[in-house]
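Morning run. Coffee first, then this:
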Amino acid sequence: MTRKTAATIATLVVAGLIWMFSGIQPSYACTKTNGCVMDIFRDDYDMKRDGRMDAAMAAGRANVEAFRAARAAEQARVSRGATKK
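And here it is:
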């Protein structure tokens, strides 16, 4: 048997073992008849209707603005330090 053939067989055996044991982990798939996608659509609709989405968007905007302000302050501090040298 050549080295190439032995390497091919070893690769196939390892791949087969990986494939065989990859199904041992528990499955977290949705088993509902209408699917989990409908739950996501329903949650999205409910968030829009009761105002949670607006609150989340406002919090996200505030977070982005705080990040931009912190980055601008950091850049100003770094540029001041560079000019003093």
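The radius of gyration is 28 Å. Good start to the day.
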